[in-house]
Specification:
alpha/beta, 12 strands, binds nicotinamide-adenine-dinucleotide, 7-stranded parallel sheet, single chain, Rossmann fold, 41% helix
Length: 346
């Protein structure tokens, strides 16, 4: 049966890809709720809907609201009940959290409390998915990868505020029986990503003959690394979790008698790449020459970690896998940006 879903942060990078994926792969109605800050952009919808018919476009409704405030009666009547909430709205750029931590507490903790409290008032909510991050686990040693219920160890205000939102979500499930799933994503990349992010920004620099700064360790011998995950694969994993919520929860808690029971799912990237390897791939796919220097960024800028890593065994053994290799999706993304160069400018 057709569902109605609410995507908070829908005008953001992952939010709009998730909405496109839902529109393309289901018959669901979608509401995007967003406050449209510097990273929220309604032009994403217009661009992604090019060539779509009027009926399909009408399945998306747009609501403006800043979740730092509670959901008012007016906003509630505009939403008018939904089956599922995907809570993606957040301040998401780590560097900005180091400059302005309080905004991150308001957007990632207080705003999460407001959406959870609203969800609590709903009658037939099937699921609320809280989008968290691999950064809550803190830096990972070489070879180490964290499992869903490993301890948190935030090293910057962004990840601490995301972990705070997670704990509230767990508390709301255990106190009020709200059905909740928490996801831990790795570094996500894809079309219409904010151009200040590493991959689009590197392509812009290559295109404009600028030197690429590669963040590395103290003696500049080893570039930092991340696991990368394509945005469309994130969207497919979220639908997988939605469709298999009860099954996943029973597997995760089959041996657990006590303690909080709230589904947490790591969404793994297909491959770990260091910052230099990523720049080299972008250079290969675009045909632009690479000029770079390694810099000791991490020790001069506290809050930046050289490596994050999560273990994706749980969701993979339950049957989900990404559709693209990093190389396939990165090439696809680079070619897309070369055809749509306006999305590289900011
Ligand atoms: N991008 C990644 O690599 C990544 C990795 C792991 C987890 N995540 C998480 O996924 C989610 C989406 O990330 P993204 O990269 O799309 O971020 P984004 O910054 O592109 O989008 C966030 C959206 O939330 C909106 N927003 C922020 N605060 C709000 C508020 N108080 N009320 C209403 N709207 C608000 C913004 O306007 C923006 O449209 C975030 O929760 C982020 O923490 C992202």
């Amino acid at each position: 049966m057709s569902k109605k879903v609410l995507v908070t942060g829908g005008a953001g990078f992952i939010g709009h890809i998730l909405i496109k994926y839902i529109i393309d792969n289901t018959d669901w109605e979608v509401i995007s709720l967003d406050r449209l800050d510097y990273s929220g952009n309604l032009n994403r919808f217009e661009h992604m809907f090019k060539g779509y018919d009027k009926n399909t476009k009408s399945r998306l409704k747009i609501i403006y609201h800043d979740l730092k405030s509670e959901i008012s009666n007016l906003i509630e009547s505009q939403i008018n009940d939904v089956d599922i909430i995907y809570h993606l709205a957040a301040s998401s750029h780590v560097d900005r959290s180091i400059v302005d931590p309080l905004t991150f507490v308001q957007d990632n903790v207080l705003a999460t409390a407001n959406i959870l409290n609203y969800a609590r008032s709903m009658n037939n909510l099937e699921l609320l998915v809280y989008f968290s991050t691999d950064e809550v686990f803190g830096p990972a040693k070489p070879g180490q990868s964290f499992k869903e219920w490993d301890r948190y160890n935030s090293t910057n205000p962004y990840s601490a505020a995301k972990a705070g939102g997670e704990e509230l979500a767990i508390a709301f499930e255990n106190t009020y029986n709200l059905p909740i799933a928490i996801t831990h994503c790795m570094n996500v990349y894809g079309e219409r990503q904010h151009p200040e992010k590493y991959i689009p920004n590197t392509l812009w620099k290559l295109k404009n003959n600028k030197k690429i700064t590669i963040h590395a360790n103290k003696d500049k011998s080893k570039p930092g690394s991340r696991h990368y995950l394509y945005s469309e694969d994130v969207a497919s994993s979220v639908l997988f979790i939605t469709n298999n919520y009860k099954k996943l929860k029973s597997i995760q808690f089959s041996n657990k008698e006590i303690g909080p029971k709230c589904l947490k799912v790591n969404i793994p990237g297909t491959k770990e790449l260091d910052n230099l390897e990523v720049a080299q791939l972008i250079s290969n796919f675009s045909g632009f020459d690479l000029d770079y220097e390694l810099v000791d960024f991490h020790s001069s800028r506290p809050g930046h970690d050289l490596r994050y890593a999560i273990d994706g065994e749980f969701i993979m053994s339950a049957g989900w896998k990404p559709n693209y290799t990093v190389e396939e999706s990165l090439e696809r993304m680079v070619q897309w940006y070369l055809k749509n160069p306006e999305w590289l400018e900011f």
